[in-house]
TrEMBL record:
Residues 58-84, 260-288 are annotated as: Disordered. This is Uncharacterized protein. The keyword Coiled coil applies. It comes from the Eukaryota. It comes from Xiphophorus couchianus. The lineage of its organism: Eukaryota, Metazoa, Chordata, Craniata, Vertebrata. The keyword Coiled coil applies.
């Protein structure tokens, strides 16, 4: 009967050991899942930071590109304006030189005319002098009118050419501005599409990580439930083992109380002393 009680005591101990090992395994799995959850949270935070930095970097690059293009356009306009001013300055200088040469020529002709008139006055009569002076004045007025007319016609032609060149330059600049504006709109659209794509990818990764975190949270919750049920079952087995130990101890006491000293078999006294020991010694020997 003692052998039967010992066998009953060993089975709960083996079951408790297996349950404790399973409990430790569940605890280690729970720890690993918590570590993975922390790592996933760190990855989510890193992805959010990377997304913010990427959007900021794209905006800075776009702003820098626009600033560089604007600076280049301003430099080009300034250079073209300087070229136009230089050409206008050279044209005005050339016209001024031509005007000075014309005035010098007119003065020379006037001096020659006055000298001729003075010589005629000295050599001829007054009537001839008046007639010559009148004809010369008319001729001079006609020449002056022709010169002024030619000058005005030249200025009109030059102004027309200048206006035509200015219109062509303005038309070219407007066309170039339209093309650059179109290129800027296309680049802006491409940048917006890239930003939207990056944002969508980041949101997809975040949703995936959030789903994984929720799944792992559910796994942790189920493991905690299983751990709680296992702990309850272990406690129940421990109570059953204590009850079995108590029953076994009572059986041993009963056997010791019913046995007669006259009927003791030699060589079995030691066994009876072991079985009739105190409850404290018996519990120390079983470990509970």
């Amino acid at each position: 009967m003692a052998k039967k009680g010992r066998t009953k005591g060993e089975k709960p101990e083996a079951l408790i050991s297996a349950l404790q090992a399973a409990n430790e395994d569940l605890r280690s799995k729970l720890t690993d899942i918590q570590i993975e959850l922390h790592q996933e949270k760190c990855k989510v935070s890193k992805l959010e930071r990377d997304k913010v930095q990427e959007v900021k970097r794209v905006r800075e690059q776009e702003q820098h590109r626009h600033t560089a293009m604007l600076t280049e356009q301003r430099a080009k306009w300034h250079e073209e304006k300087q070229k136009e001013q230089q050409a206008l300055r050279e044209n005005l200088t050339r016209q001024h030189e031509q005007e000075l040469a014309r005035h010098a020529k007119i003065k020379d002709q006037e001096n020659q005319r006055l000298k001729a008139a003075l010589n005629a006055i000295r050599d001829g009569s007054g009537e001839k002098v008046r007639t010559a002076l009148t004809l010369e004045a008319r001729e001079e007025a006609r020449r002056f009118f022709d010169q002024e007319r030619v000058k005005l016609l030249q200025e009109i032609v030059e102004l027309k050419n200048t206006k035509k060149q200015t219109d062509e330059a303005l038309s070219n600049m407007i066309q170039a501005d339209k093309m650059k504006a179109g290129d800027l709109r296309v680049e802006h659209q491409q940048h917006q599409e890239e930003i939207s794509k990056i944002k969508w990818d980041c949101e997809r990764d975040v949703r995936r990580l959030v789903d994984e975190i929720k799944s792992k949270n559910r796994t942790i919750f189920s493991l905690e439930k299983e751990l709680e049920s296992t702990a309850g079952y272990l406690q129940k087995l421990q109570l059953q083992k204590d009850a079995l130990d108590e029953q076994l101890f009572l059986v041993k006491e009963a056997e010791c109380g019913l046995g007669s000293p006259k009927r003791e078999i030699p060589g079995r006294a030691g066994d009876g002393a072991e079985h009739c020991g105190s409850p404290v010694n018996y519990r120390d020997s079983t470990g509970f």
